[in-house]
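Worked example

This section walks through a single chain of length 351. The input is the sequence exactly as stored; nothing has been trimmed or padded.
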Amino acid sequence: MARTIGAFIFPVTWEGWTLNEATDKFKQLKDFGVNTIGTESEVYRDDLIDLAHRLDMRFVGGIACFSEHGREHQPLHDRPELWPILENGQRRPLMEWYIGVVPTFDDYQESRLEAIERIMREHELDGMVLDMVRWPLHWELELRPGEPEPLQSSFDRHTVERFLAYADLDLPGDRETVPEKAQWILQEHRQVWTDFKCQVIADFVGRARDRVKAQRPEAQLGVFMVAAPDDQRAYLVGQRVRDLAPVCDFLSPMVYHPVLHQSPQWVAQTIDDIVKLEPDNVLPVLQVDSAEGEVFGSDWGRAVPVEEWRRIACHAAQRQDTLGMVAFTGTALFADQRGEMLADCLRDANG
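Given that input, the structure is written out below as tokens.
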């Protein structure tokens, strides 16, 4: 299979395009070297999927697994037990647009799996990428340098009971409050807690892959990965490479250096770190610019100078140890000759 050169486009962008407008955009992206359109939605336009296929491009969908931002968090109000509980006993607060969802409820997991199955059954997608398939963390803000260690969650009664059963542990009788229980777990059983979190996520991903393959055997399942060292990522969000690699087709670290207030050099190092753990199955997502963040009510960090984007794109294009790259966002390629720069990088890399 040819290396993937993807362009992620938010549904709020493509849902308003006419077919003629979409045709112009897709053709322009193809001229930039893009061969895969990526997005994330529970509703798809078959005319755009068909258009991509007619242009010999792939169309890959996505879904938010453990977040209800798309429904303005209403399910958390309707069903409060889904609201993550921090180690201090408080509900996890709204940060920008994000709260998260407790990932340990079987019926909620099943509702997300059914949505994945429905999407793959109803639309001729070439793959599906799981987003927010993690324990609660607004990593874009909470993992910036200088920020305090993020608080763990969730310590709701249901999750604590599941953890105790998983670890074959009995809660000491003097641990009555949520902070007391959390302190005991995190101080005395941190590794088992981490393993539990990773098991919950890997089990869900494996079942999602089964649903995808049952509908479209040739479709691929990917996972958007928090861009952090593997041990930290496992502890905070339950995403560990060795657990996820066997149950999905590719891993996509979101190496958004402006969002995380990191340097361009950090991008290459972060990709290196995950490639060492899982050679040949890594598809990094690169931030093209930050201008669109304000549109979505998010802080995407500083602007990316065009020459900085060129260096990042060319480095990614020249790598032979990844599956390719994805531009985030694809629509940012239309500004300031950034798409033409990507095309130049790909031509240079291909000799």
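What to look for: The radius of gyration is 20 Å.
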